[in-house]
Amino acid sequence: MEHEKWFALRVYYGGLKKVLRIKEIFDGDGIETFVPMRYADTINSEDPNEPSRVPALKDLVMIRATDGTLEAVKDRHRDKKELLHLDYYRHRGGEKKGRAIVIPLRQMQQFLDSVKANEDSVTYYTVDQLKQKKGRPVVVLAGQFKGVEGVLMRIEKNRHVVVMLPGVLGASLTHIPVTMLQFKNQ
After folding, report:
1. For the stretch 99-112, what's the b/e string if a residue is b when 16 or more beta carbons lie within 10 angstroms of its beta carbon?
2. What's the pLDDT band for 1 if we cut at 50, 70, 90?
3. CATH number of this structure's domain 5-102, picked from the four choices 2.60.40, 3.30.70, 3.30.530, 3.30.565
């Protein structure tokens, strides 16, 4: 029996609406998905009193699946053009170059718990946006994020704990006082 893991899927040629359509296809097949969301500047057409939420990144859908799931879904939904330009996020270098990035269940669960605990104030960053940032690995010692591992980085003149999914994205959490952090040995 194959074990499930999390995969990051790159959506080519389509943007935010295509990301949501792809999410719906996987959800319809009973496959757990995650799409990082943010508030948009537009008005919600269903409820004008509620702000509109859109995908934070125009090319990312994450799925919890086994190795052959993407190909099986593409086979089952041959008529859906949304799935034509969809591939795994892949390692860019090293001995794993070209292989699909796999996110262990524990790491993804920690990420999901962190971002869902305070999803209104989480900001998502691509790997390229964080590439030039330096930081120190930390563990949160207390509060709602107790036990979360991340990197303390300076972003937009403030220090943020950024929870990373290496090779995919990072999410900055709300302000956490330095006194609640333990620096890890590098």
Report:
1. ebbbbeeebbebbe
2. low
3. 3.30.70
